[in-house]
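This part of the workshop introduces the protein records we will be handling. As an example, a complete record with its sequence and its structure tokens follows.
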Amino acid sequence: MIKKLDITREEVAREVLKIQLPSYKIEAEMIDFYDIPPLKDNVQTLQKCDEIFLGYYVGEQLAGAISYEIEASILTICRMIVHPDYFRRGIASALLNYLLDLNLEVKKMIVSTGRDNEPAKKLYQKFGFTEVADIEVVKDVFITKLQRNS
């Protein structure tokens, strides 16, 4: 089941953080860079962010989440989170499908991921995103920006 999350509620922010930290730790290991901003989040920073969160539940357990922002008809996917215990179960695909099915009035969607995060890049490409740029965020660490026009 997928539902909108109220990230301003402390218990919801805690629940998201419990899956976000292990999820992004895997990406950090994959790209050999541990200064990823989501790894620095805490309950308060999550509560204060302006992102819209959707959560994927397996029974009562939050297993994945996606967050996004919309500005000037551009939707930016800010976070794609799947707890490692739930990898390869189609949760990220289900979250992307759900987001796309919302038929939000946007001209394009953008997302960024570690350049060396091949599973994430393949996922986004499967949904019509194309690579538009590799950006060096710090010396020898690159993210890939992907875009999908609506």
